[in-house]
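Action item from last meeting closed. Structure (153 res):
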């Protein structure tokens, strides 16, 4: 499971032309579910994101978590994070989990994150547009394989 985490002042998503989720200060999260991912990865990633200290304290150091600042998140599914671009110029997405597998894991991730902070969402599988104001900018890519020791950065 891969999450692109962007620190934001605000974020909102429109799905198929209809306003969907939003958040104030906190995180804009693009979430990609890969083949082989399961509940363990969803829970581990949500826990790490809730505790990640990338918000600045009164001394200007990145020392606070999203829970410390009373922030929230907007989570949008994004299978293109599974892109394989190693051959040619047209990526394939064969390592993305099938929608029937990915959607329940996406929902598990959202519910696990909701135990820590308020979470807005996009609409799984919809055409979406995101409007956000980045803060910093601070952007971090998290990979559940790194958290489980399967891959190092």
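Sequence:
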């Amino acid at each position: 499971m891969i999450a692109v985490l962007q620190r934001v002042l605000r974020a909102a998503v429109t799905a198929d032309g209809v306003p969907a989720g939003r958040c104030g200060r906190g995180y804009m999260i693009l979430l990609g579910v890969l083949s082989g991912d399961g509940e363990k990865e969803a829970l581990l990633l949500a826990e790490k994101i809730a505790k990640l200290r990338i918000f600045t304290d009164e001394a200007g150091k990145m020392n606070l978590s999203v829970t410390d600042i009373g922030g929230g998140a907007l989570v949008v599914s994004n299978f293109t994070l599974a892109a394989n671009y190693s051959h040619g110029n047209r990526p394939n997405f064969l390592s993305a989990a099938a929608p029937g597998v990915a959607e329940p894991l996406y929902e598990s991730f959202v519910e696990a994150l909701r135990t820590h902070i308020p979470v807005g969402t996009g609409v799984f599988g919809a055409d979406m547009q995101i409007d956000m104001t980045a803060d910093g900018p601070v952007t971090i890519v998290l990979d559940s394989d790194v958290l489980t020791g399967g891959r190092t950065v």
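Note appended to the action item: The chain has a mean pLDDT of 95.
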